[in-house]
């Protein structure tokens, strides 16, 4: 049992030694550039076998079979005695196609190539991200977020590809961080110990625009916009933010007013506008109201006043020769207080103030009537 085990181990050791020796021999063969000439003047078969070339070709392009790459080749141009013997060339990295030629420049007589399998390509991708808080020279806290992404390949293993990608992503993230920190040359790592300064900016934007409406009426639109903004960076930053906001507000105001004139034309009208242009577009065509015709003037007659209460008047009667008599008291109706109209309608909806002349005339007529009544009473008494 023990003898068998030793024999197996010995055979394995001898096989390993032979393998190493063969590998070294191949490596030594392809290490010569250009290669040493074969003593027999013929290229080794290698992987492709010896390929003879017909015709005159100083160069040839050879291709590897599918799934293989060319790792080296041998080329012969003439006699080994003349220095045109086989030359062995190593191709590193291995490739699927290569152009061969002899160092003498003479036509190629034959060639052979060594093939290796196409290696498995492993792909690794990595992303690195992070953030860092700093305090700027203006005592403002800033948090910088940085990132880095990279992809790398390897023919060794997946672990090798991943490691290469991770290293590249780390480098990319650090480069991103450095680029952002360059914007703050006087920063301090960490947050600020004092509070930031806040700057306030206010801006007002106004203007006017002349337009021509669909009714050929010139209209001037006046618009305005006001805004206030704050910033912890600088006063210039606050002013710039306020200016931008005010511009936007002014444009919004202009757009809202222009929306009232859907068929307007920019600029003043080319036709002659009306004498008094309306400030707003008419919603309906104007209507003409006819002038009313004054009706005939009708003057209301003044009605005589009514006597509300008789007024006793003492009238002396002539005495007779025989016997004196007491004067008889005769009741004579007198007009009471007359209510006079203060105004007379003119007929066109207005009134005319009444003159005091009518009142005087009425008073005189009343006095005349009183005198006539007294005279009739006296004549009646005499007849008796």
Topology of this protein?
Blueprint: H1 2-30, E1 51-52, E2 59-63, E3 68-76, E4 87-95, E5 97-101, E6 110-117, E7 122-135, E8 141-154, H2 158-181, E9 188-189, E10 199-212, E11 218-231, H3 235-258, E12 265-266, E13 311-314, E14 329-332, E15 343-345, E16 351-353, H4 357-383
Antiparallel strand pairs: 1-6, 2-5, 3-4, 3-6, 7-8, 7-9, 10-11, 10-12, 13-14, 15-16
Description:
The chain is α+β, with helices and mostly antiparallel strands and 384 residues long. Among the domains are: 32-117; 122-189; 199-266. Helices cover 27% and strands 29% of the residues. The protein has helices at residues 2-30, 158-181, 235-258, 357-383, and strands spanning 51-52, 59-63, 68-76, 87-95, 97-101, 110-117, 122-135, 141-154, 188-189, 199-212, 218-231, 265-266, 311-314, 329-332, 343-345, 351-353. Strands 1-6-3-4 form a four-stranded antiparallel beta sheet, with no helix packed on it. The longest helix is centred in the N-terminal third of the chain and has 29 residues, at 2-30. It is elongated, with a radius of gyration of 65 Å. The termini are far apart. 11% of the residues are buried. The model is unreliable at 1-39 (pLDDT under 50).
């Amino acid at each position: 049992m023990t003898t068998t085990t030793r024999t197996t181990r010995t055979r394995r050791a001898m096989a390993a030694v032979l393998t190493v020796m063969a590998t070294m021999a191949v490596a030594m063969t392809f290490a010569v550039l250009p290669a040493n000439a074969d003593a027999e003047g013929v290229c080794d078969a290698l992987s492709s076998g010896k390929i003879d070339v017909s015709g005159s070709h100083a160069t040839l392009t050879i291709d590897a079979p599918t799934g293989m790459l060319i790792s080296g080749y041998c080329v012969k141009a003439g006699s080994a005695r003349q220095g045109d013997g086989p030359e062995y060339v190593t191709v590193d990295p291995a490739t699927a196609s290569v152009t061969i030629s002899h160092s003498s420049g003479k036509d190629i007589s034959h060639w052979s190539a060594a093939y290796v399998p196409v290696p498995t390509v492993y792909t690794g991708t990595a992303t690195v991200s992070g953030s860092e808080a700093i305090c700027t020279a203006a005592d403002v806290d800033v948090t910088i977020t940085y990132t880095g992404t990279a992809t790398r390949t390897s023919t060794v293993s997946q672990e090798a590809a991943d490691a290469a990608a991770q290293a590249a992503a780390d480098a990319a993230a650090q480069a991103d961080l450095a680029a952002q920190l360059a914007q703050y040359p006087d920063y301090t790592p960490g947050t600020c110990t004092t509070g930031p300064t806040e700057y306030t900016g206010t801006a007002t934007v106004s203007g006017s625009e002349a337009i021509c409406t669909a009714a050929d009426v010139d209209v001037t639109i006046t618009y305005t916009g006001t805004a206030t903004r704050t910033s912890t960076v600088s006063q210039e930053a606050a002013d710039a933010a306020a200016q931008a906001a005010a511009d936007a507000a002014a444009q919004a105001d202009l757009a809202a007013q222009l929306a009232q004139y859907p068929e307007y034309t920019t600029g003043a009208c080319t036709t002659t506008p009306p004498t008094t242009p309306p400030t707003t577009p008419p919603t309906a065509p104007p209507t003409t109201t006819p002038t009313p015709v004054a009706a005939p003037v009708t003057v209301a007659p003044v009605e005589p006043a009514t006597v509300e209460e008789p007024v006793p008047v003492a009238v002396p009667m002539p005495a007779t020769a025989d016997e004196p008599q007491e004067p008889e008291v005769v009741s004579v109706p007198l007009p009471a207080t007359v209510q006079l109209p203060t105004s007379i309608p003119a007929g066109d909806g207005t009134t005319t103030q009444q003159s005091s002349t009518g009142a005087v005339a009425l008073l005189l007529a009343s006095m005349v009537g009183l005198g006539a009544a007294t005279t009739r009473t006296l004549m009646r008494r005499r007849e008796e």
